[in-house]
């Protein structure tokens, strides 16, 4: 197996200058997909056998593939997928397939739930989201105050009176937003998407995204104006906030009213596969709209899943439901996202000692900060630890904060690496922790039930 | 509808210099997919209502989308998809999705058939393929002799004794190879993949691809050596031929022996979706291998479908067959290929008068040339016209010939445009002609049956 992999890797030398291989890009996409899907399933299988979530197996399969180059510097097959800016055609293709993958996953997760279900846990989700933003922000601020003691020179050069509190604020903000992809996969792997804790966390993650956007806009604006020596335009922040909140409300309200009518029209068509295509167009449409509103596109995909319900498809008089049709597409696309996420982990970034201090601090702030979330849940019979652990992963939202901070100059290379490591660690520790806490809560509930009898 | 489309088109201005839009590439991929899938289904629906194959509706939907820029020069939303060399990230993404689409289609078509079925019509397929290569070659040669009267100056500059017969030979060769995608879709749209004519044509198209490769290698080598003033290496041609034939034989023999064992191993895994992923890995693997052997990757996908049979999946003890799992993926991917094919048609190329003469000649040669195929079918009760019409589309194989000829200098811009127009016309006339001839043959068969009674 390893020998034949090595053969594949050396068979397709990548031109380092242009990062474009001599092999037809589409053929290289096929080769990438073969290796990615094959190792994803192998990783998932191994982890399921040791009672761990499949998604962790896929992530680690990706880390191994991406970092094979550390073992043998000739194994550069996956290097094009790891570039900071993708230029290789096949790598761009895989990147787009991966991003469609996470959209399909959130759509699938949304389909498992409904607007009604979400409304039932709405207040808890809102409280969880708010606490999950405030506490990590404060903790991140103090970690930064501990490790970052001076304003970078390039900022002082343009703005001599720049206040160091702005930097602490930005790092605190990078710890706020929850990335829902990992948590959703763990609940799905365990068949627990319907449980109360899952609904609270998913709802909170969506609200978190809106809050995170507002904080990012506010903090960026404060930093920009501090750098420029001008004051902050409150109007801009209010505008962004209204767009984001408006999108979510609009999508849910209009979606609920419009989709049954749209489906009635679509049911009159004769073409094969129209049910699936209509659902996918709604999913992609809301994803694009969410992105236009400044939110993560996956929030739109989740909203699309929420407003679409199995009943809308009854018109098509088919015995195959929409979930059955989306599932094979998800099986193909979703692992690409998680393996690609693993491939992009540069293990060598863990080896820099000066980064380890601040990243350790950020990781502790990130893990502890979200545990406060569990305390504000209103419902009884909810495992508060599961809610707190489900909110841990930071994912791409944290990375967006880091890269914006870098472009503003408040985040230097060391802090950037530290934030990246924090994102990686929060992503990788969540699946086993969450699986453990769900099982523990279910055992406890069974015991209490037995006692009650 | 048109007004809102116009809005979308103007909302996302494409930077003409870099061909990269300001909008996130993934979001633009989603927007492309929404418009492509939406109009594909609309086109398919309209054409099915007027009793035409759905695939023609998808092609024409693409032509309209791609050429909207002729109506209003601000509607450049699709321009990045029409560039000769794709540079825009979103366009590269769509291109790769489209090419995965045609691979999935041929895999699906292959699944509908089996090695045993193909062997039964093997001799007829071989005869059809051989005639379908020789006759168009000869006709194309004469059309070229009629229209091309002098060797291009840039060739004479490097090789004063260059024989003009080499050019005629190249143009003749460009008319040989059948592109099976369109024909397969028409048989599929009509639910006739199992009919004898379909099996003969599909088999012949695969053999055609091998013959086409040998001819391309031979003719290119002759032209190259004529340009260089050296003689042709026969060894090179024999080598390429053996690789291509060896691939097909090897894939079919090893596949038939190996896959049942592979499936027995895979059946021991517990992970969800392994049946589908295993099938897709086999499909992508044979596609990549075919491409490595110098064949079209879709030949590999078809071979993968042939060697995989429903029975192999019985081990998984699932009530959902592999065809049911591939279908939703095909519904999503396949229309992207046909719409993208339409988008890439530049209608303005039809307007150049000097091109119209030679393209008219080539179209006639291409249409008539393949009709000889029907005459050599050995089986009785076969509609010979359906076989001949099914062999008409030239598709991407003809385009590959044209572009290699252009790089060798034997195909100038006018001949190149003429070959492109020939490919477009053969692609667009096949669906209605084929549908008509299949219906006609079936009516005739019913009539004879009625008479027999």
Structure notes:
The structure is a homodimer of 453-residue chains. The first copy, chain A, is an all-alpha fold and 453 residues long. Chain A has helices spanning 2-11, 25-49, 54-71, 79-82, 89-111, 115-120, 122-147, 153-158, 165-174, 180-189, 196-228, 234-266, 274-292, 297-307, 322-343, 353-375, 384-390, 395-408, 413-452. In chain A, helix 9 runs antiparallel to helix 18 (395-408) and helix 12 runs parallel beside helix 14 (297-307). Chain A is globular and about 70 Å long. Residues 1-22 of chain A have low confidence and may be disordered. Chains A and B meet through helix 2, helix 5, helix 13 and helix 15 of A and helix 2, helix 5, helix 13 and helix 15 of B.
Q: Cα-atom Rg of chain A, whole angstroms?
A: 23 Å
Largest sheet of chain A: none
Strand content of chain A: under 5%
Please report the number of helical segments of chain A: 19
Mean pLDDT over the full residue set of chain A: 79
> Helical amount among residues of chain A, as a percent range?
over 70%
Q: Regions of chain A with pLDDT < 50 over 5+ consecutive residues?
A: 1-22
Helix and strand run of chain A: HHHHHHHHHHHHHHHHHHH
Measure the end-to-end span of chain A.
55 Å
Query: What pair of chains forms the biggest interface?
Result: A-B, 54 and 54 residues
Shape of chain A: globular
* Structural class by helix and strand composition of chain A: mainly alpha
Strand runs of chain A, count? 0
Give the quaternary arrangement of the chains. homodimer
